[in-house]
What we know:
Blueprint: H1 10-13, H2 15-34, E1 49-53, H3 58-69, E2 73-77, H4 84-88, E3 93-96, H5 106-124, E4 127-132, E5 142-144, H6 155-168, E6 174-178, E7 181-183, H7 191-194, E8 204-207, E9 215-219, H8 220-232, E10 240-244, E11 248-250, H9 252-263, E12 268-271, H10 274-280, H11 285-291, E13 301-303, H12 306-311, H13 320-325
Parallel strand pairs: 1-2, 1-3, 3-4, 4-6, 5-13, 6-10, 7-9, 8-12
Antiparallel strand pairs: 9-11
Helix pairs in contact: 3-8, 5-6, 10-11
Amino acid sequence: MPARATSPNLIGEYPFNYEYMTYIFRQFIFTCEQITFEPQPKEITMTKTVLILGGAGKIGSHAAIAFEKAGWNVRHYNRKTDDMTRAAIGADVIINGLNPPLYHDWKTLIPQITAQVIAAAKASGATVILPASIYNFGNQPGTFDENTAQIPNTRKGKIRVTMEQTYASSGVQIIMLRAGNFIDPNGNGDFMSVGSLRRIRKRQLVNVGNPKAMQAYCYTPDWARAALMLAERRHELSQFNDIPFPGHAFTNETLKQCLESHLGYRLKYTSFPWWAMRLFSPIWELGREMSEMRYLYSMPHTISAAKFNRILPDFQPTDLKTVMLAGLPTDIHPNKPVRSGGHTVITL
């Protein structure tokens, strides 16, 4: 038998190979048709924006720092040049740190500020966060919480009650962090700089009221961090939120012990010049407004932590010693002579 010729066309030479390769090709095409290539979603980073009202003050300055550190876009409202509503467009949160200085004309200015803030929040859809005071409660010693009866006994307390009622009925989301006396490590006219520590260079601690009375204090950097945490959880909150900020509580006696231990020398008590406030109150607005608040500094009180801890269980406050020493002028050091001058006191 003659030898078969060798053909390079193997598929043509062997029909089985052709059919098999056709089957493989068809299976490949079928498999490719079943695969759906979906584009992977890109991670979208939404920049959150906060508008700070009163950025140079005790609340606004520290709020700006806290929000900026957390990656928020921080805007500052200039009350001399800006329109508040326009400034708020695009903002997610408004921090209202505005308050008339030196208790000036609260009856007129507080309602005006409140109306402006509400209008800005409505235009932008922003949440408003602001500090609330304990003036609303009047002279009733004890522990204050969101259910404490508001029975103000001063002009400013009544103005604050009306202000809060206006916010509550505004239709915008409101978060009030109710706090005690402000302690600002930058001074800035806080309670320490104008009250207890106003004569610390003369080794004197001022008793604004009863030194044994427990008083509620608010360390403003802590308030700002709490405001930030609430801003980031605002979608979990109600439309109107009255949240007590527990802060810290101590007596002037405890403050004296802490300061003496830190400074290494004894301090003498001296009294706040309430007599001057009363004497000049008929012609001095600040004296008149401060005089009606005198009761507060001898009224033992604290602020409940229950609701705050439920909402922000992971909040870590600054330690008590740091807070009590925060009001010391920066150039006062333990066991060193204290200069008698050069301490600028910024009044309320």
